TrEMBL record:
Belongs to the UPF0223 family. This is UPF0223 protein BC6307_13365. It comes from Sutcliffiella cohnii. SUPFAM superfamilies: BH2638-like. InterPro entries: BH2638-like_sf, UPF0223.
Length: 89
């Protein structure tokens, strides 16, 4: 990737790893598809780290601007898909 992931200096190393794993899951949905349950697991962990809606929006908007991948659209598609389905953007 030719960009940096939007992160917070207040996060622990484990939290940074988990947030990057979420961003990578969104990328995977665009590039080759990802299991819905895997994506939602990583999103739930992201929400534990970033519980604020406004902070989530700020980070995901910045991520979309840098990468071109919409985590919002990806999660919406996953939320509307049945368990076990593969999400491909």
């Amino acid at each position: 990737m030719d960009f940096s992931y939007p992160l917070s200096i207040d996060w622990s190393t484990d939290e940074i790893i988990d947030v990057i794993a979420f961003y990578e899951a969104v990328e995977e949905a665009y590039l080759k598809g990802i299991e819905r349950d895997t994506l939602m697991f990583k999103y739930r962990r992201f929400k534990e780290i970033v519980p604020s809606k406004s902070e989530e929006k700020k980070l995901t908007d910045e991520y979309e601007e840098l990468s071109g991948y919409s985590s919002y659209k990806t999660i919406q598609k996953a939320k509307n898909a049945p368990a076990g389905e593969r999400i491909k953007m």
